[in-house]
Amino acid sequence: QVQLVESGGGLVQAGGSLRLSCAASARTYALGWFRQAPGKEREFVAGISGSGGKTYYGDFVKGRFTISRDNAKNTAYLQMNSLKAEDTAVYYCAAGRSGWERGPFDYWGQGTQVTVSS
To answer: How many CB atoms lie within 10 A of CB 32?
Structure first.
């Protein structure tokens, strides 16, 4: 079982930035970020391979978000810039046994709320 703990969410104005962190108990698994807004389905945001050498993003990201990881700390990050009101959602960290940045993802964190005010 992999434990995932997210942090870094909060309230930010449109155009601002936030960095989310995900501390994982497994080092070599792929890590990803998903989000779910009220009344909407959960959607894929970004993923990074176990080695950190490959990344993959959801179409809507369009260069605004960057996923990275520090394997020495077993932590993944999601740097979010140019935030928009429609980025408001609960953001979830996920881990995948395959190590592939596109998933599948097998374990989930509890989520962290990101609210962007317009």
So the answer is: 28
| Other Cβ atoms closer than 10 A to 116 | 19
Task: Output the DSSP codes for 2-32.
Answer: --EEEE--EEEETT--EEEEEEES-SSSEEE
Check: CB of residue 28 under 8 Å from CB of residue 48.
no
Only one residue has tokens 């993003």, namely 57
Q: What is the pLDDT along the chain (118 residues), one digit of tens a residue?
A: 899 999 999 999 999 999 999 999 877 799 999 999 999 999 999 999 999 899 999 999 989 999 999 999 999 999 999 999 999 999 999 999 999 999 999 999 999 999 999 9
DSSP state of 64: S
- Exposure string for 45-81, b = 16+ CB within 10 A, e = fewer: bbbbbbebeebbbeeebeeebbbebeeeebbbbbebe
Q: First-to-last CA distance in the chain?
A: 39
